[in-house]
Amino acid sequence: MIRIIPAFSFAASLVALAPLGAAAQELTVRVSGIAEARGEIGCALHASGASFPTGQAGARIVWIKATGSEVRCRFADVGAGSYAVAISHDLNGNRRTDTNFLGMPTEAWGVSNNVRPSLRAPRFEEARFETDGSAQTISVRIAK
């Protein structure tokens, strides 16, 4: 009986720890097309279309210095599900995508799936991608 208890305790601890590894995934967003190595790249991870692509409510946001033609934004502990990413290259330090009087962006931007409608903002459904509970890397190219 003494041998069974330690074996059972060890097995139970492995079962208890197993979900922790599966629930914690890292999503990496490889941002390319950065024309100027100045300012910051803002990466916003949206779990719904409520504020996508320019709103911040409910989004997880990461800011990275624009140090070259490519940067990587990392989001820890992203669970399995549907998401969309919006990227902005903030050149003037206001941490938003500036627009002209017509509402068209004047700073480089991009979204997941590299969707670029010409006369409207991208929709969440167009930029949506799925995660399956494992680490994942997606690529987004930004442009004006």
Structure description:
With 144 residues, the protein is α+β, with helices and mostly antiparallel strands. It has a single domain, classed as Immunoglobulin-like. 17% of the residues lie in helices and 33% in strands. The protein contains two helices and eight strands. It has helices spanning 4-23, 124-127; strands at 27-32, 40-46, 60-65, 70-75, 81-90, 109-111, 129-131, 136-141. Strands 2, 3, 5, 6 and 7 form a five-stranded antiparallel β-sheet that branches. It is globular, with a radius of gyration of 20 Å.
Write a concise keyword list for the protein shown above:
single chain; about 140 residues; alpha+beta; Immunoglobulin-like; five-stranded antiparallel β-sheet; three-stranded mixed β-sheet; about 15% helix; globular; DUF2141; signal
Please give the radius of gyration in angstroms.
Answer: 20 Å
CATH architecture: Sandwich
- The string of secondary-structure elements, in order, is HEEEEEEHEE
- Straight-line distance between termini: 70 Å
pLDDT below 50 for ≥5 consecutive residues: which ranges? 4-21
Summarize the structure.
The chain has 144 residues and is α+β, with helices and mostly antiparallel strands. The chain contains 2 helices and 8 strands; from the N terminus they run αββββββαββ. Pfam families: DUF2141.
